[in-house]
Every structure is written in structure tokens, then in C-alpha cells.
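Our working data are protein records whose layout never changes between entries. Getting from the letters to the C-alpha cells is the skill we practise here. To make this concrete, we reproduce a full record directly below:
***
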Amino acid sequence: MVRMRRRQSGFTLLELVVTLAVVSILAAIALPSFFGETRKSNASAEVQPLFSDLRVRLEEHMQEHGRYPAGAGETTWNPSAPPSTTRVPLDLTLAAWLPLKLRTSGEDRVFCRYTFQTGAANDGANIVGTEAAARFAFTAPPTEWYYLLAKCDMDGDGAVFSWYFASSVDPVIRKVDEGR
């Protein structure tokens, strides 16, 4: 009488360990990319509408008064605390921000810090040595001008910041180190 052995099916321990290692490696590669994209989209979702509102307010001021309001400059950030991964409200009582007549609900909070600068035609004095000049090669145009600047710390490391820039010359939002 011949006995037939039944073959057992399943995975060996070695096969399970190899599979687990491959899945771990793929996760280690994919997760930072996923979180980076999330940070980028969070920053863009905040910066885009605020820049749009600031542009409208600056242009309204220009129409009403024949010039842009005095800029806040890159030494006055709004909010004044360093950028962080915690949302805080904009300070609409800052003297430079009052002429813009911004209105927000009590719920409006931001991750990034914002500033703007204005100048007369060919007035490069307000640009020399600024982040706008250094990072975005902004030069004063032959007409009255403004630029908007946002500084964000979306990854919370405090070392490298994301920078966002738009101006009266080019309203397209330019980005440096986006999502950082």
C-alpha cells in the first residue's frame, strides 16, 4: 500500500519576511512624498486666496488714492510670531495693514507669515537686500509697484522655509522650497 503525502500550502517564514521588507521599503519611499504634497497643497490653499485678496485691496487703494499704501516691509511680518505648523490669526490692527481694509472672520487662521512692500516708479531703494530681490530677482518697474511675500514653515523644522511671491508686475505666485 502506497501512502500519498498531502502537500501543505502556505507561506514560509522567509517569504513573509521578504514581503514585509519590500512593503516597508516602498512605504519609506512613498510616505515622505505624500506628506510633502500635503504640505504643498495646504500652503497653496492658504497663500493663493490671501494673495488674491491683498492684490484686490492694493488695487482698490490705488484707485481711491492714486498710489499704493506704504508697505509693511520685510521687517514687519503678519502675524509677528515665526512661521509654524500651528495656525494663528492675522493681526489686522498693524498700522501698515490698516489701509488695506482686510476683513476676516474670527475663524481665519494662517500657517504662513505675510508682508508686502510698495514703491514709486523705479524705486529700487525699497528692494535692495530684501528676500524679494534675493530669492525672486525682483527689480523696481517703471511704474508704481508692490510685491507680496509669504514665509511658511510647513514641515515644522524651523530651518528651511517655503517662500511665495507675487507682484504688481507678475501676479503669478512664484515659489521657492515649496512645502518645506
Observations:
- The beta strands are 113-119, 145-152, 162-167, 174-176.
